[in-house]
C-alpha cells in the first residue's frame, strides 16, 4: 500500500457542489444515520445524491450502504429487532478486546489523549496500542471481521459517486482516506475505518478506526464544497482538547470561513441513552433508526432550499 494510493486524488471540487458527512457512532449510530436519511428521503429530500460522501467508522458503513441500496430498504432492515449482545468496542469484529466493554474502551482513549502532545502523537500512540493488542489476537479475527463487514454492504464494489472512507495508518499514525482510486476493496476500506479494537491489515499496511484521524466526523475533508450536511451520532462531542482544533465545531467554523454553508443534525437529547456507552447494543438499533427517521422527516422542509 503506497501513501499516494490512500489519500484523496487531489481533484478540487467545483463550486456549488454538495457534501454529506456521516459520522461514527457504533451500531446505534449507523441505524440513526440510516433513519435520518430515510426520513429526509421520505419527505422528498434525497441527500444520497451528494457529490461527495465522507464516511467514518459506522458512517463508513452507512456511506457504503446508502450508495448501494435505497434508504427505505435500509431503514426497513434497521427497524428489525435483534437479540441483545454484550457491548464491544466499535469495529472489534464482534469480539472483546483486552479493554472489555465500550466504557473501558472510551476510558483508554481518554488516557491516550491525556498523555499525547498533539493530534499526531495521539494517533501514533493509539496505533501502537492497537498493534500491541493485535499481536496476541485470534489470527482468524481479521477474516471474520471482513466477512462481517462485507455482509452488511449491499454491493462489494465502489460506487461511481465520490466516496471518502477514513482511517489511520497504525504503524505511522498518518491519516488515511480511501476512495475508489486507492486500489483497496470497498469492504476492506470500511473494515479498516471501523477497526477501533485492533489493527486491520490491507496489503501489508495496518489501519485503525477513522475516528482517530481527527474526530468522529472528519468534516474538514469537505473543504471547498459549497453545501455541507453533517450527521453526527455523537452530537459533535470529542475527547481531544479544544485547542487541538479537532472538534466538529472547529471544523464547521473552518468550513464556513472557507465559504461553505454547513448544516448539522445531532440525535435529540431524549435519545442520548441509545448512544455513547450503549453504541454497540444492536438491540437498540430499531429505536435509534426510528429516532433518526423522525428527525429527518422534521428537518426535511428546512433543508430543501439548503440542498437544492
Automatic annotation (TrEMBL):
<feature type="short sequence motif" description="GXSXG">
    <location>
        <begin position="55"/>
        <end position="59"/>
    </location>
</feature>
<protein>
    <submittedName>
        <fullName>Patatin-like phospholipase family protein</fullName>
    </submittedName>
</protein>
<keyword id="KW-0378">Hydrolase</keyword>
<keyword id="KW-0442">Lipid degradation</keyword>
<keyword id="KW-0443">Lipid metabolism</keyword>
<feature type="active site" description="Proton acceptor">
    <location>
        <position position="209"/>
    </location>
</feature>
<dbReference type="Pfam" id="PF01734">
    <property type="entry name" value="Patatin"/>
</dbReference>
<feature type="domain" description="PNPLA">
    <location>
        <begin position="21"/>
        <end position="223"/>
    </location>
</feature>
<dbReference type="InterPro" id="IPR016035">
    <property type="entry name" value="Acyl_Trfase/lysoPLipase"/>
</dbReference>
<feature type="active site" description="Nucleophile">
    <location>
        <position position="57"/>
    </location>
</feature>
<feature type="short sequence motif" description="DGA/G">
    <location>
        <begin position="209"/>
        <end position="211"/>
    </location>
</feature>
<dbReference type="InterPro" id="IPR002641">
    <property type="entry name" value="PNPLA_dom"/>
</dbReference>
Amino acid at each position: 500500500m503506497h501513501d499516494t494510493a490512500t489519500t484523496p486524488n487531489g481533484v478540487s471540487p467545483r463550486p456549488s457542489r454538495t457534501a454529506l458527512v456521516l459520522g461514527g457512532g457504533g451500531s446505534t449510530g449507523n441505524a440513526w444515520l440510516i433513519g435520518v436519511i430515510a426520513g429526509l428521503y421520505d419527505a422528498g429530500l434525497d441527500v444520497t445524491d451528494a457529490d461527495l460522501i465522507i464516511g467514518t467508522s459506522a458512517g463508513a458503513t452507512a456511506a457504503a450502504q446508502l450508495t448501494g441500496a435505497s434508504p427505505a430498504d435500509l431503514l426497513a432492515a434497521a427497524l428489525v429487532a435483534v437479540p441483545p449482545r454484550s457491548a464491544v468496542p466499535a469495529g472489534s469484529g464482534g469480539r472483546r478486546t483486552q479493554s472489555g466493554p465500550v466504557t473501558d474502551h472510551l476510558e483508554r482513549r481518554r488516557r491516550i489523549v491525556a498523555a499525547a502532545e498533539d493530534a499526531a502523537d495521539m494517533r501514533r500512540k493509539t496505533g501502537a496500542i492497537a498493534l500491541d493488542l493485535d499481536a496476541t489476537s485470534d489470527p482468524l479475527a481479521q477474516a471474520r471481521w471482513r466477512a462481517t463487514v462485507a455482509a452488511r454492504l449491499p454491493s462489494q464494489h465502489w460506487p461511481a459517486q465520490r466516496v471518502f472512507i477514513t482511517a489511520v495508518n497504525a504503524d505511522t499514525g498518518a491519516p488515511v482516506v480511501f476512495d475508489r482510486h486507492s486500489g483497496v476493496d470497498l469492504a476492506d476500506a470500511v473494515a479498516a475505518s471501523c477497526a477501533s479494537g485492533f489493527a486491520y491489515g490491507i496489503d501489508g499496511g495496518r489501519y485503525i478506526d477513522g475516528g482517530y484521524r481527527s474526530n468522529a466526523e472528519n468534516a474538514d475533508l469537505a473543504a471547498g464544497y459549497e453545501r455541507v450536511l453533517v450527521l453526527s451520532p455523537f452530537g459533535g462531542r470529542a475527547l481531544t482538547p479544544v485547542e487541538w482544533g479537532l472538534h466538529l465545531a472547529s471544523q464547521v467554523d473552518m468550513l464556513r470561513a472557507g465559504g461553505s454553508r454547513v448544516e448539522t443534525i445531532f440525535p435529540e437529547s431524549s435519545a442520548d441513552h441509545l448512544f455513547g456507552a450503549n453504541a454497540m447494543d444492536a438491540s437498540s438499533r430499531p429505536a435509534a433508526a426510528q429516532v433518526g427517521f423522525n428527525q429527518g422527516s422534521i428537518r426535511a422542509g428546512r433543508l430543501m432550499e439548503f440542498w437544492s
